[in-house]
Each structure stands twice: as C-alpha cells, then as structure tokens.
Design brief:
CATH class of the largest domain: Alpha Beta
Largest sheet: 6 strands, mixed
CATH topology of the largest domain: Rossmann fold
Mean pLDDT: 93
Low-confidence stretches: none
Oligomer: single chain
Shape: elongated
Strand content: 35-45%
Order of helices and strands: EEEHEEEHHHEHEHEEHHEEEEEEEEEE
Strand order of the largest sheet: 6-7-8-3-9-10
CATH architecture of the largest domain: 3-Layer(aba) Sandwich
Length: 361
C-alpha cells in the first residue's frame, strides 16, 4: 500500500536474472524532500532498485509511484526523474554551460529561460566562471558538479545518484559530500543515493536503507542504524563491533546473561534460556584498564596484538579466550601498553547489543 506522505513509493519490487534473485519483493518509500541512501555490498540489489525507479530497467513484479502517479510503465524520459551516474555521462565535446543546458533544450525551453537556468545552477555548484570552458578540461570533482547541475536544471521531482563520488579521491570525495548536501538542501529536492560507502551514507542521509541479498534489512535514521542495528549483518556492515558468541543463561529485566569463552556477559535483550546468541559492542564503548569501572559493567581479559594509529584516534586490536577478536577505539593511547600485554576491558551492560544467529543464505 502506498504511503500518503511519500513522494516515491515502490511496492513489491521483484527482479531475477536467470536463477539469481536480485530483488525479493521490496517495499520502499521516500518522503518529500528526504535524502535516502541505499547502502549495501556489491550484488545486494541497490543499483537494480535505483534503475527500476529511474525506468532504466523493468521489474518482474511490483509497482512504482511518484508523487501519487503510477509510473511503473512510463518511459524514462517521461518520469521527471534526474539521474547522476558514476561516470557522470557528460558530453565531452560540449562546454560546461552546453552540458547543463542540454536537457532544457530537449524540453524546448525558451532560450532566455535556458540562459537564466544554466546561470543559476552553475552558480549553485560554484562553476559560473567555467561556463564557456570545455567540460573535458575539468577535474573529476568539477565534472561531478556539472552532472549534478545538469540533472537539477530540468527541475525533476526526484534525483537519483548512482555512486557519484566513487571515482574521486578520499579528501575530494568528503568535500563533495558536504557540498552536494548543501546544494540539495538549497534546492529542496527529494534524493535517493546508491552507495557501498557506510561513511558516505551516515554523513549525507536522513534515512538509510541497508540492503542484503535483495532485501532491506533495516530502514532508519543513521543514528538508529549505527546504535541500534536490527541484525548481525547491519552491525557488521555499518561500523565495527566486537562479536562474542555464547549461550543464554538467564533473561530478565531487559538484560540477557550469556555464557561465553570470555566469561559471563550481560547485554540488553530477551532470549530463551539455552539459545545461542551473539553479544556485540562498538569499539568506542570499551575502556582499557579503567581504574574505576561503573558497577553495571562487563569485564574481560584480553591480549593486545596490534595498535593502528589513525591520527585523531587509534584502533587497539585485542584477542580474548577462544581467539575472539576485540577492537577498541581510543582517543588517547593507554600508557605502558604494548603488543603482547594483557589488559582488562570493560563496557557498560547498556552499551552492548545482542542478536540471534545470523540467517543462512
């Protein structure tokens, strides 16, 4: 059923290629003015879903509605949807201004309106001074901004971004993410981004749809996806976490007590006694050799194997009983701690997570 508040509604989308099920009946809605990311590994179905929304591919079953209108069988050029591809798909023989004007000319806008619109959007992406230059002479970041300006110039109801930053180096990519977020906020356009980069999705999105094997495992705000992942897959794909498997001893008052190779651990949860669960904790919540840990805290012993310096933070890699890897993120390195040393690791019960076994393929 379509959402009454959504600009985009995809209902029951299915797609198979031979024996390979790429989409398994996905329901997906985006509110007007919202920025949503489709996040997942290669082959999870995110690009296929985007192409179905754009009209570049037909679903085997399901429907697509845009602004209340059924567009499932509407050709791409009549959907009023803008698309920015990985390779930008610019016309190398045209100038920057001519590239931005292309869609306007196709739609037979008046020359005066074309000129004003091109000027507006080139100024918006800070490329007004490049208007008369050949597009092939621009840097990758500049070409990406031209592609965005061209897509926005025709005033689409929906903007689709297919990994538009993948060809840029890290520093430029991070700058473009912030710049594009500013541009889209100023224009106020509804946007769907396809990406495999978790940091990109966390930085840019109002909501993130984490996809796995043709399904959406979680669709929520970035903070919820990171802090309250609904599956082991989401936990592992978005951020880092220690994962410790064990068996439930007791479950009461919203806490589950689990017997593990590292000792008894407690975490929020509700499971039947005897069931197999995974206790998890994000690396920034773990304290090393804390002189005064809080009363409701887990405590384990582990051996430091490696320190990875990352500028403003360091990753400390530990190994616990049963060869269990434990990752700790520290803003300051603990004194006199070197690889090979044994340390006490603690974290509050409430900072942990618990999950049932991961479903098989």
């Amino acid at each position: 059923m379509a959402s009454t508040h959504a600009l985009l509604d995809v209902s029951g989308a299915e797609k198979t290629f031979g024996a390979n099920r790429v989409l398994g009946g996905i329901d997906f809605s985006v509110a007007r003015g919202e920025f949503v990311s489709l996040l997942g590994p290669s082959g999870c179905g995110k690009t296929t879903l985007l192409r179905i929304v754009a009209g570049l591919m037909a679903a085997d079953r399901g429907s697509v509605r845009l602004d209340g209108a059924e567009i499932t069988n509407v050709p791409t050029h009549k959907r009023n949807v803008g698309v920015v591809f990985q390779n930008y798909a610019l016309f190398p023989h045209l100038t920057v201004a001519e590239n931005v004007a292309f869609g306007l000319r196709v739609q037979k806008f008046a020359p005066e309106q074309i000129g004003k619109t091109v000027e507006r959007f080139l100024d918006l992406v800070h490329l007004g001074e490049k208007a008369s230059q050949p597009v092939r002479g621009l840097s990758g970041g500049q070409q990406q901004r031209v592609a965005v300006a061209r897509a926005l110039a025709v005033a689409p109801k929906l903007l689709l971004l297919d990994e538009p930053f993948s060809a840029l180096d890290r520093k430029l990519r991070e700058g473009m993410q912030i710049d594009l977020k500013r541009i889209l906020r100023e224009v106020g356009i509804t946007t769907v981004l396809v990406t495999h980069d978790q940091e990109e999705a966390l930085v840019m999105s109002d909501r993130i749809a984490v996809m796995n094997r043709g399904e959406i495992e979680q669709f929520a705000a970035p903070a919820d996806v990171y802090l309250r992942p609904q599956s082991l897959f989401v936990l592992g794909f978005v951020g880092h976490a220690a994962r410790i498997e064990g068996h439930v001893l007791t479950s009461q008052n919203g806490l589950v007590e689990v017997e593990t190779p590292l000792g008894l651990l407690k975490a929020p949860g509700n499971f039947v006694s005897g069931s197999t669960v995974t206790v998890a904790v994000r690396p920034e919540y773990i304290r090393v050799n804390d002189a005064s840990p809080e009363p409701d805290s887990n405590m384990i012993q582990a051996t430091l194997t490696e320190i990875v310096f990352q500028g403003s933070k360091s990753h400390l890699h530990f190994i616990g009983n049963g060869d269990t890897p434990i990752l700790v993120e520290a803003s300051q390195l603990p004194r006199d701690l070197r690889p090979g040393a044994t340390a006490t690791l603690t974290w509050r019960f409430g900072d942990g997570l618990s999950f049932p076994p991961e479903r098989s393929a």
